[in-house]
Write a structure and sequence with these properties.
The complex is a heterodimer. Chain A has helices spanning 3-24, 27-52, 60-77, 82-104, 109-128, 156-179, 182-192, 194-199, 204-223, 226-230, 235-238, 241-254, 260-279, 284-299, 303-317; strands spanning 139-140, 146-149, 152-155, 232-233. Chain A is built from 15 helices and four strands. Chain A is globular, with a radius of gyration of 19 Å. In chain A, a hairpin with a 2-residue loop joins strand 2 (146-149) and strand 3. By secondary structure, chain A is mainly alpha-helical. Chain A has one domain. In chain A, the strands form two sheets. A two-stranded antiparallel ribbon of chain A has the order 1-4. By secondary structure, chain B is α/β, with parallel strands linked by helices. Chain B has a domain at 5-89 and 163-242: Rossmann fold, CATH 3.40.50.300. Chain B has helices spanning 43-51, 73-79, 96-112, 118-131, 147-160, 177-192, 204-210, 228-233, 235-242; strands at 5-14, 17-27, 32-36, 58-63, 66-67, 81-84, 165-169, 196-200, 213-218, 221-226. In chain B, strands 6-7-8-3-9-10 form a six-stranded mixed sheet, with helices on both faces. A four-stranded antiparallel sheet of chain B has the order 2-1-4-5, with helices on one face. Classes of the chains: A mainly alpha, B alpha/beta. The interface between A and B is medium-sized, with 20 and 31 residues.
Chain lengths: 318, 244
């Protein structure tokens, strides 16, 4: 299946879900769905660096927040349409990703992870002290009730949902294309053995920079519409630890070596969190993530996809 | 004829320890050079300096007349300098065929600057696996391999880069006689196809039968270089190996 077909099918599935929500006409479905789609983008983005290349990034929240705050900046400076804000968010986060890559990719393992965590703290401090985007007070973003384009009039949340759906399709199609390309093989060699990779002619530093840039850009994309979704953005919520933890946990639970893993993990964990938020309390969220992560590390260290592959292989042998 | 590889006065130290001290080696195109020396004599450091894994402090490595100073390891591989590692370092998460596809994608294709058809690539992978006798296991993972097979994979992967010079770093340690013969035959066949080979080895029978010339490293210095039969009788070499 080529990328175009894949994108069309994924988009069709998303549109079918959207049609269902529209028919149900429950706004909450869009709110919950948006969050899950946002996590699909974040988890897929994280997986490009963390899963394919094996560099565990704890700074997801920073890239996400950079996307979100670049939107806040433009909202205060000169409001722009959201699709354009998404592109701008991607550019800013991508550049930050590239810079982070240059500074940190000579570090390996836990040291790299600590550096990304530190980077998140640095950016949070910068935003807290930047008055123009609200500083520690936060910023209000007021969006119109409806989105109108060429006579079409929909609830704003439907519009945001559709945008996030598009981003999810783009992220998944990109991840899947990478996996099957020369780049994907190169990423796998970085995960396995960088010294051997260099000996095979793989330009490891350049590939790692591509990965950090792409990964950062997608996280920024996911963050750009967020202020419009939440209405009130403050540093604590944009830089929340939840983003970092979730975007690691979701690919881990689904499986990190293919694009399917983050997708499955996000849907599973995202839905469970939404369910818990409504039925019990939003504070249970992280507990669920923690418990599932522990369970999966013990039962299925290669995620659900790994579990399925193992059982298929075992069946083939017997 | 000019040398294919010219290691010119290379030195490398780790802190106060001098690992290489003014090494001078020339390798002619098509030659089979054996490189021996006791443990810790600097053989692997020399390979790492030649291949760009380590940067030498003084001196220059010239390949086909061009200085390689400052080039990263992958750039040297693309120029035709391939190596196998002392301890096999396969890519664990991909199949054997993919292990070979990677150097094909990243060196041969980068060098020729054109897109190999998918089927070409596939055929070349299988051909290489067949050469080392691993074709039946093309779809398996490296963890399913035995030690010998792992070493064969390591060599096949170095061969996949279509090198002009192949450095085989102790690819026979711990193998049985027949397995050693297998790998030696493989290297000789490769050499007959025009690939220059540097063999680093402890197993003297293998080195003696393979090498046209022998160089000896001791404590980071080259103490002998010449026809294998003469070198092993050299009093200094005997002293280095057996003591006085």
């Amino acid at each position: 299946m080529n990328t175009a077909t894949f994108s069309i099918i994924t988009a069709a599935v998303g549109l079918a879900v959207m049609a269902l929500f529209h028919w149900l006409s429950v706004d909450y479905a869009y709110f919950a769905g948006y969050t899950i789609l946002q996590f699909i983008v974040l988890a897929t983005a994280w997986n490009i660096l963390g899963g394919y290349c094996g560099y565990v990034n704890f700074g997801t929240a920073a890239f996400f927040a950079i996307g979100a705050y670049s939107s806040v900046f433009w909202y205060k400076f000169h409001p722009l349409p959201i699709p354009l804000l998404i592109v701008l968010g991607a550019v800013v986060s991508g550049i930050v990703g590239l810079g982070t890559g240059y500074l940190t990719l000579r570090l390996r393992g836990a040291f790299f992870s600590i550096a990304t965590l530190a980077m998140a703290v640095v950016f949070q401090t910068l935003v807290v002290n930047w008055d123009f985007v609200g500083g520690s007070r936060g910023a209000y973003i007021i969006h119109p009730e409806n989105f109108e384009l060429a006579g079409l009039k929909v609830h704003y949340i439907e519009y945001l949902f559709a945008l996030m759906l598009l981003l999810a399709v783009i992220a998944l199609a990109t991840a899947r294309t990478i996996e099957r390309s020369r780049l994907g093989y190169g990423f796998a060699t970085i995960r396995d053995d960088e010294l051997a990779a260099e000996a095979c002619g793989v330009p490891t530093l350049r590939l790692k920079l591509i990965a950090t840039t792409l990964s950062g850009a997608f996280m920024g994309m996911a963050g750009a519409p967020f202020p419009y979704y939440i209405g009130y953005l403050q540093p604590q919520s944009a830089f929340a630890l939840d983003y970092a933890v979730n975007s690691i946990a979701m690919p881990m639970i689904g499986g990190t070596t293919t694009w399917v893993g983050p997708l499955v993990g996000s849907i599973l964990l995202g839905s469970a969190q939404q369910y818990a938020t409504v039925t019990i309390s939003s504070a249970v969220n992280l507990l669920i993530v923690g418990l599932m992560l522990v369970a999966f590390v013990i039962i299925a260290p290669n995620g659900l996809i790994g579990l399925v592959k193992e059982s298929l292989r075992a069946r083939r042998r017997s | 004829m000019t040398a294919l590889l010219h290691v010119d006065n290379i030195s490398k130290r780790f802190g106060g320890f001098v690992a290489l001290d003014g090494i001078e080696i020339e390798v002619a195109p098509g030659e089979r050079l054996g490189l021996i020396g006791p443990n810790g004599s600097g053989k692997s450091t020399l390979v790492n300096c030649i291949c760009g894994t380590l940067q030498n402090e003084t001196g220059t490595v010239r390949f086909e007349g061009q200085a390689l100073d400052g080039l990263a390891a992958h750039q040297r591989t693309r120029r035709g300098l391939a190596r196998s590692f002392q301890l096999p370092r396969p890519f664990h998460s991909v199949t054997l065929a993919d292990n070979l596809r990677i150097p094909l994608l990243y060196t041969v294709r980068a060098r020729e600057g054109m897109l190999h058809a998918h089927s070409d690539l596939e055929a070349r992978c299988h051909e290489l696996l067949d050469t080392v006798g691993l074709l039946p296991k093309a779809g398996r993972m490296p963890r399913d391999l035995t030690q010998v097979e792992m070493r064969k994979l390591e060599l096949a992967r170095a061969m996949a880069a279509e090198p002009k010079l192949l450095i085989a770093d102790e690819s026979m340690a711990g193998l049985s006689h027949s397995e050693i013969d297998d790998i030696l035959a493989l290297l000789v066949r490769l050499n007959e196809r025009g690939v220059t080979i540097i063999l680093i080895e402890h197993i003297m029978s293998a080195v003696m039968s393979f090498s046209q010339r022998l160089a000896v490293l001791v404590s980071g210095r080259k103490i002998a270089d010449g026809p294998p039969k003469d070198v092993v009788r050299d009093p200094e070499v005997v002293r280095a190996y057996l003591g006085q």
